[in-house]
Automatic annotation (TrEMBL):
It comes from Sphingobium rhizovicinum. Residues 1-30 are annotated as: Disordered. This is SDR family oxidoreductase. CDD domains: SDR_c1. PANTHER family: NADPH-DEPENDENT ALDEHYDE REDUCTASE 1, CHLOROPLASTIC, NADPH-DEPENDENT ALDEHYDE REDUCTASE-LIKE PROTEIN, CHLOROPLASTIC-RELATED. InterPro entries: NAD(P)-bd_dom_sf (IPR036291), Sc_DH/Rdtase_CS (IPR020904), SDR_fam (IPR002347). Belongs to the short-chain dehydrogenases/reductases (SDR) family.
């Protein structure tokens, strides 16, 4: 077991959705309309949470899916089953997106299986709560940035030669980028970097017909928080501070990822959508 994976296990991250109660709601809420017919999507962190909901919705809309995950084989197998139940093809690829070589392997296996890449969803992330900046170890700081932003760079670099005009990249940032988070200093900092990456990458690629956008979820019920990403006292009232008064479900976030991946958003690039329970942010 590598040092990286050992650290994640000690924090119980990324966590098994299969063991979470209540279960996150990932199910698409309406019939598909072939908005992604014939497309191929790579989705990181697709074994659970938001990533699973996005994979399910993309499949319903006609896409084949490369499911990228770190450790949870059972969750990844379930997402693969969900995609295939929609009549689409899926492959599951296990590894650490913080390692550059793994990004090359993701692209190779996706091309071998499907022959093309049309959509890249950079969703995977990790967080570790700390009350004081001095509590954040150098190892944790490097690890959080490695997963949350370096991984996006590596995978985008690997996929870029295979993305043609009409392709879409959708990154997952966070409401913490806009509000800040006193207990998630390193995590919220990476989310700020992701938003800047999204806007800059859009400027870089839009001339080639490749759109880049992002989604900034608020508090969403996924394995991320209950499996070590938040303190127990926060979980007792998770999401209650939003104007809507509850946490969101993954299926309430997935449509934003669909909109940004399909032609419905053909005049949008460099933008961020905010499924966050009614929290008002600038940006």
């Amino acid at each position: 077991m590598t040092e990286t994976v050992q650290m994640i296990h000690e924090d119980a991250l990324p966590g098994h959705e299969s063991k979470l109660e209540p279960k996150p709601e990932w199910q698409p809420r309406y019939k598909g309309s072939e908005r992604l017919k014939g497309k191929v999507a790579i989705i990181t962190g697709a074994d659970s949470g938001i990533g699973r909901a996005v994979a399910a919705l993309y499949a319903r809309e006609g896409a084949d899916i490369a499911i990228i995950y770190l450790l949870e084989d059972d969750d990844a197998a379930e997402t693969k089953r969900i995609v295939e139940a929609e009549g689409r093809k899926a492959i599951a690829i296990r590894g650490d997106i913080g390692e550059k070589e793994f990004s090359d392997e993701i692209v190779r296996q996706t091309l071998d299986a499907f022959g093309r890449i049309d959509i890249l969803v950079n969703n995977a992330g990790e967080q570790h709560p700390d009350e004081d900046i001095t509590d954040i170890s150098e190892e944790q700081l490097r690890r959080t940035f490695q997963t949350n932003i370096f991984g996006m760079f590596f995978l985008t670099q690997a996929a870029r030669p295979h993305l043609k005009a009409g392709a879409a990249i959708v990154n997952c940032t966070s409401v913490t980028m806009y509000q800040g988070s006193k207990d998630l200093l390193d995590y919220s900092s990476t989310k700020g970097a992701i938003t800047a990456f999204t806007r800059s990458l859009s400027e870089n690629l839009v001339g080639d017909g490749i759109r880049v956008n992002a989604v900034a979820p608020g508090p969403i019920w996924t394995p991320l928080n209950p499996c070590g990403g938040a303190k127990p006292e926060k979980l007792e009232h998770f999401g209650e501070s939003t104007p809507i008064g509850r946490p969101g479900q993954p299926k309430e976030v997935a449509p934003a990822f669909l909109f940004l991946a399909c032609e419905d958003s053909s005049y949008m690039s460099g933008q961020v959508l905010h499924p966050n329970g009614g929290i008002i942010v600038n940006g």
